Amino acid sequence: MGPRVRVAVVDDHQVFADALAERLAAEPDLEVQGTAASGAQAVALLDEQEVDVVTLDLVLGVEDGLDVARELAQRNPGLGMVVVTGADADVRCLEAVRIGVRGWVSKLEGTATLVDAVRGVARGETHLPPGLLSDVLTGLTVLADGAGSADEAVVARLSQRELDVLRCLVDGRSRREIGEILGVSPNTVRTHVQSILGKFGVHSALTAVAIARRAGVVRS
């Protein structure tokens, strides 16, 4: 087993946060670094501890969880974020993905789904419910409408290997599958993905896929 995934839990309901932290800590490949009940506490926790993935409630008392997510993403580039939310908040998923959130899990789902999301996001994957994934991709593509020439210009900056990785992402391949197809390690794939995101100036692979579609890397 490789290094454990370091997780922080951000939720203003302490009983839920403690229960979730205990559940995650029970997994041999996960290590909980602490819990936080507010944006300020989350910032302080991540300043003190090395964290790979943070689980984040969409509502933190009077704070908007996505505002907290935005600040955490700015202060901690590469941080994996999984939103854990109520069933009536799916309309905000597109906004979350644009900020850099890569996981979205309802509190009504079992904890096994959240554990899978944390692991997937730690690998650099996107973990969204199938019913939301299509809507988010459509929304990202619509937001990019009219930027085709600019998208083509930024895609032209990619190396051949980065373009190969991008095509696999557009095909819906996971990091592991991309590694098998290209004959490289998942860590190498992750490095290429981070380079693609940096060149595109975006925070998520889904947004990169939307740009690729607009640029004609594949047909939508």
UniProtKB/TrEMBL annotation:
InterPro entries named in the record: CheY-like_superfamily (IPR011006), NreC/VraR/RcsB-like_REC (IPR058245), Sig_transdc_resp-reg_C-effctor (IPR016032), Sig_transdc_resp-reg_receiver (IPR001789), Tscrpt_reg_LuxR_C (IPR000792)
Keywords recorded for this protein, A-Z: DNA-binding, Phosphoprotein, Transcription, Transcription regulation
Molecular function, one GO term: DNA binding
One Pfam family, short name: GerE
GO biological process: phosphorelay signal transduction system; regulation of DNA-templated transcription
Ribosomal protein is among the record's keywords: no
Transmembrane segments: none
Every HTH luxR-type domain range: 151-216
4-aspartylphosphate modified-residue sites: 57
UniProt entry tagged with the keyword S-adenosyl-L-methionine: no
Residue ranges constituting the Response regulatory domain according to the UniProt record: 6-122
SMART domains, alphabetized: HTH_LUXR, REC
UniProt-listed SUPFAM superfamilies: C-terminal effector domain of the bipartite response regulators, CheY-like
PANTHER family per the UniProt record, alphabetical: DNA-BINDING TRANSCRIPTIONAL ACTIVATOR DEVR_DOSR
Protein name: Response regulator transcription factor
Source organism of this protein record: Nocardioides guangzhouensis
